[in-house]
């Protein structure tokens, strides 16, 4: 059964993925603009992509780990020195970004709302 987690911020993201580093479980990460008190992201593309990605999880391997990561406020994200942009583990250019952690596979922006591309990423375990 796929394990699903939601975390907020870079440190929580690193802590969560590091907790699986000794397993062989494939880890998929969706980076998204953080949500407000009503549960809505400031990022319109993220709002569109989230249900597509979560709905496509049935194509992911049974032992997969899925981590939804809120990258912070719009102002925090837009800073060129934002840790999500600069850290070698993420090197994000945009949100939403869906990646297979530790590998080159990633989808960005409107690609994350394309169910066929999301299925391909999940099936390429």
TrEMBL record:
Keyword Cell inner membrane belongs to the record: no
CDD domains xrefs: TRP14_like (cd02952)
GO cellular component, one term: cytosol
Key words, A-Z: Cytoplasm, Disulfide bond, Redox-active center
Residue ranges occupied by any Thioredoxin domain in the UniProt entry: 7-124
Location of the protein in the cell: Cytoplasm
InterPro entries: Thioredoxin-like_sf, TXNDC17-like, TXNDC17_dom
GO MF, one example: protein-disulfide reductase [NAD(P)H] activity
Similarity comment text for this entry: Belongs to the thioredoxin family.
Name of the protein: Thioredoxin domain-containing protein 17
Organism: Cherax quadricarinatus (Australian red claw crayfish)
């Amino acid at each position: 059964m796929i394990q699903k987690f939601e975390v907020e911020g870079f440190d929580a993201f690193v802590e969560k993925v590091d907790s699986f580093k000794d397993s062989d479980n494939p880890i998929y990460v969706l980076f998204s603009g953080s949500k407000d008190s009503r549960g809505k992201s400031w990022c319109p593309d993220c709002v569109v992509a989230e249900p597509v990605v979560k709905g496509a999880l049935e194509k992911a391997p049974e032992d997969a780990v899925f981590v939804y990561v809120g990258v912070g406020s719009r102002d925090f994200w837009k800073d060129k020195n934002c840790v999500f942009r600069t850290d070698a583990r993420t090197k994000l250019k945009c949100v939403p970004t869906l990646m297979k952690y530790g590998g080159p596979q990633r989808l960005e922006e409107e690609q994350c709302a394309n169910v066929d591309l999301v299925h391909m990423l999940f099936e390429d375990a």
